[in-house]
Specification:
Strand content: 25-35%
Strand order of the largest sheet: 5-4-3-6-7-12-11
Oligomer: single chain
Number of helices: 6
Number of strands: 12
Largest sheet: 7 strands, mixed
Amino acid sequence: MEKDIFGNAILDYQLGRYTEDIITYSSLDEEDIIPVPYFFRTYKAMPSLEQKALKLCKGSILDIGCGAGSHSLYLQKKGFDVTALDNSPGAIEACKLRGIEKVVESDLYEFKGQKFDTLLMLMNGIGIVGELKNLDTFFTHIKTLLKPGGQLLLDSSDIIYMFEEDEDGGYWLPDTGNYYGEVTFTMAYKKKKTDEFPWLYIDYNTLQRAAQSSNFNCELVSEGEHYDYLAKLTLDPQ
């Protein structure tokens, strides 16, 4: 698990070896810290958007990018049939140790053959899409995982607030030709670093347009306190 920086941190915490947190370096901020205990939070400690998403879950559930499995664990205790999915070996091992019954170590796009009533992507889980141009591929695959009448619940943030505001109330955005929510990250933990990887923060209007072009209905369920939101996507009947 040499490159499994995230999983190593999660598993260390689960095994009582927690001594430091994950450091992230991004194209937006020079450095930030992700406290590892945050991934093990209880329902009461979760942001209201996550709590609302969990309340909206129905039927069989796929928790995509489950991390330490806190959402899966809560849903399982509530009696739901939930599968925790992550491509991190360390995170999946921690989920098993926490007692989550159904776990799958896999990349999302390689996970096939099962359908669910609810797909859950919390903590900006849609970030794995990386870039806007990948949304069509993402939605195409998501359709293969949804039962008729199924739903995709996701949260994300409009990071426009991170850019300098001008006198007219607009924002100075870098002239790169890329969408401003496309960010590159590197993670570091215990003197080891990941390769640079892309991560997507998508504003609701952009998400809605992309979803509708792939025949999804997109509903704004709730807005958070800081440019974040929870959305529910369902497929148009064909």
